[in-house]
Write a structure and sequence with these properties.
The complex is a heterodimer of chains A (about 280) and B (about 170). Chain A has two domains: about 50 residues, no CATH class; about 220 residues, no CATH class. Chain A is an all-alpha fold. The two termini of chain A are about 45 Å apart. In chain A, helix 5 packs antiparallel against helix 9 and helix 6 packs antiparallel against helix 8. Chain A has nine helices and no strands. The longest helix of chain A has about 45 residues. Chain B has about 170 residues and is mainly α. Chain B has one domain. Chain B is built from two helices and no strands. In chain B, helix 1 packs across helix 2. Classes of the chains: A mainly alpha (about 280), B mainly alpha (about 170). Chains A and B meet through helix 3, helix 4, helix 5, helix 6 and helix 8 of A and helix 1 of B.
Amino acid sequence: MAAPAVTAAGAEEASPLSKGIARLLHELEVLPLNGEKAEVAGSFSPENFVLTNYSFWLLVAVVLMLVFFIVASRKSQLVPQGISNVAEAGVEFVRNNICVDVMGPEGKKYFPFIATTFFFVLINNLLGNIPPALPGTGTVGTTFVWGVIVFLVYNGIGIKKNGFVPYIKSLVPSGTPGWLAPLIFTLEVVSHILRPFTLGVRLFANMYAGHIMLGVFAVFMAISLEHFTPVSALVLPLSFVMQVLLRVFELFVAVLQAYIFTILTAVYISGALHASEH
Amino acid sequence: MDIIIPKGYELYVNIVAFAVLFVVMWKFAFPPMTKMLDERANKIRESLEKAEDTKIEAERLLEEYKVQMAEARAEASQVIEQGRKVAESMKAEILAKAKEQAEAEKAKAIEAIKAEKAAAMAELKSEVADLSVAVAGKIIGSSLSKTDHEALIDKYLAEVGSLNEN
C-alpha cells in the first residue's frame, strides 16, 4: 500500500481527515495477526505461515457455516422448523434457482459444489457487516483461490464430459472460417484464463470498496466529534445517515455478490457441459 | 497496489477451507437436507393428488346420492299415488257391492211381501166363499143345489173382486 503509507509518514503536517483515512486503510490492509506488515515475497513458504486478519474472520465464517449446516441438517424433518427451515430455504433456492435454472435437471449433480460456493461467499460477505469482523471475501487471497477452484472445476467437468480434445476444439465454434480459427482460439483461451481473475476481483473489489465506504463515513463522524466545528454540525448527521444507508446497501451487496459469483460458476459449468454443442 | 496481489498464507488457508468445507457439506450436511426436501416435495405432491382424488370421489358420491334421492322421491310419490288409486277402487267396489246387496235385500223383501199378499188373498177368498155359502144357506135354506151355489159364489166373488180392484 504505497499511497497511504506516504500519507501516514507525513502525518505530522497532514490534516486529521487524511490521518484518519490513512489509519482506516491500514486497518483494512491484509495484516498478519502478529501485527507485522504482510509481505508478498516469502509469504508462500510454509515456515513463514501466519494467520492474517482476513483469514481469521474467514475461519470464523467457515466454522459458523459448518455448525449452522450440520445442526440444521441434523434437525431436518418432514415439517421444517426453526434453523433447518432457514437452511432448507437456502438449499432449495440454490438447487432450484441456480443449479436447475442454469444447468437444467443435470445441474443437481453439481449442487454440492455450487451450494458450498454460494454459502461460503454469502456467509463471509454477511459476517463482514458485523463490526469488528472483516469479510473473508474482502481480500484477493480468498477470492482468487475460489476463482481458480471454479476455473479448475468447470474445465475439469468439461473435459470429463466431452473428452480433452473435443473440449479444447469446442473453444472454436463450429463453422468458423479456417483462417479465423487461430484468432478465435486465442481469444477464447484468454477469456477463459481471465475468468478466475474477473470472478475474484469482482467479489473482492465489491466487498473491499464497501468496507472503505463504511470506514470513510465512520472516519468523518469520528473527526467531526473530535474537532467540533460548525462544519461538523452538518457533516456529522449526514455521515450518520450515509453510514446507515450504506449498511443496508452493503447487506444487499453481500447477497447480490454471492448470487453473482455462484450463478457465474453455474453458467461456466453449464457452458463446459454443453461445450460440444456449439 | 499490493492489495490486489494475494498473499501466500491466505492461499493456503483458503485451499484448506475449501477442501474441508466442500467435503463436509457434500458428505454430511447437504444429503440429509436434499433428501428431506425431496421427501417433502413428494409428500406434498402425494397429499395434493390424494386430496384431488378424494374430492372427485366425494363429488361422484354426492351426484350418486342426489340421483338416488330423486329416484326415492319419485318412487315414494308413485307409491302414494298407487295407494290412493287402490283405495279409491276399493271404495267404489265396496259401494257397488253394498248397493247390490241392498238391491237384492229389497228385491227379496218385495218378493216375500208379494207372496204373503197372494197367500193372504187366497185365504181370504176361501174364507169369503165359505162364509157366503154359510150365509146364503142360512138365508135361503138348503134349497139351492151345488151348481147354483157355485154360480152364486162366482158372481159374488166377481163383485168382491171388482171392489177390490177399485
